Amino acid sequence: MSMIRDLRAVVRPSRPSLRKESGAYDTTRDPATPSAVVDCAVYRDGARVETATPLAPHEAMRQVRRDGGFVWIGLHEPTESEFSGIAREFGLHPLAVEDAVQAHQRPKLERYDDSLFTVFKTIHYVEHDQLDANSEVVETGEVMCFTGKDFFITVRHGGQGSLRALRHRLQDDPELLARGPSAVLHAIADHVVDGYIAVADAVQDDIDEVETEVFSPGRKGSPRGTDAGRIYQLKREVLEFKRAVSPLLRPMQLLSERPMRLVDPDIQKYFRDVADHLARVQEQVIGFDELLNSILQANLAQASVAQNEDMRKITSWAAIIAVPTMVCGVYGMNFDHMPELHWRYGYPMMMSVTVALCVGIHRTLKRNGWL
């Protein structure tokens, strides 16, 4: 156990704020790598075996079979032809190979005879100056891992979620890498879940901002429907986040609870920690969804109340205007014998009565909260 005492420190460095560090994700393939293979290296006794020229996957595997250790191959969006040779060399199952090439898979863990196939959804928080109805909040990618006795293959899809920095951190801890491919699998799982935690914190800030604006007193001049559009867009992004987090919980529980011959028993204990953090993120995301439902309903209720208030004001003014309309309508008729028609003070009296009635109605409606 002393060999992996600092496991968390190696694979889980201090977590930067996604709002402050937009360069936390590598969005391009290495320019010096013309193929889908981003990196290919042999690790023996926890150290990377340095070579004069970059190794091809089949050359790396020959070294492993001859001298021991394991090979770690990283690929970025390989085509079927690019991946077919590697699949044959390492005896990967055709169904897993098809999933790895086509991508757009649900997070899962599949066990084959000589390998484990794991799919992770990576989440990247998209920076935005102001949240609106068209803002993209989260961006997803995929990391697929093939774990064997003497090999570890990662297939990455999407423009974010590079594993280069993670590989370098693992190479700085020979005792951990000496545990073999399962140590790399744990490091990637922990790295992905740490990304979920950071994104959840950033999304929480967006939800707090929307919630504050919706419930802030005296909110005037905002266009009708603007907040509803923003809330609905944020809810869609949270749903995408949920689709990445929830299906992964069962695979992490299996890796932490069920003995597997391809997973080192000492490393397996640390998958329990990953599963715990993932469960916490899942609870957060479910809470986000429920909170956004409440905020959306409250916003719609506020809009309904505002419309009712507008209708009451319109009705009140219509009632006030009805008094002079009625009086003018009566005395606008062409009859000779009408009360006070030829009286000297008839006009001032009718105007005074009309004004008095209008003022009385206005004060009554205002006192009752209609105006």
What would you say this structure looks like, in words?
The structure is a single chain. This protein is α+β, with helices and mostly antiparallel strands and 371 residues long. It has helices at residues 7-11, 57-67, 80-90, 94-102, 164-171, 174-177, 181-215, 226-245, 249-257, 265-331, 346-367; strands spanning 37-44, 47-48, 70-76, 108-111, 115-125, 138-148, 151-157. Strands 2-1-3-7-6-5-4 form a seven-stranded mixed beta sheet, with helices on both faces. It starts with 6 loop residues before the first helix and ends with a helix. Residues 1-8 and 13-33 have low confidence and may be disordered.
Number of helices: 11
Rounded mean pLDDT score = 80
Distance between the termini: 75 Å
The description of the largest β-sheet is:
7 strands, mixed
Order of helices and strands: HEEHEHHEEEEHHHHHHH
Number of strands: 7
Strand order across the largest sheet: 2-1-3-7-6-5-4
Unreliable sequence segments: 1-8, 13-33
Shape: rod-shaped
Rg calc: 34 Å
Question: How big a fraction of the residues is strand?
Answer: 5-15%
Helix content: 40-55%
**Structural class based on helices, strands and sheet pairing:** alpha+beta
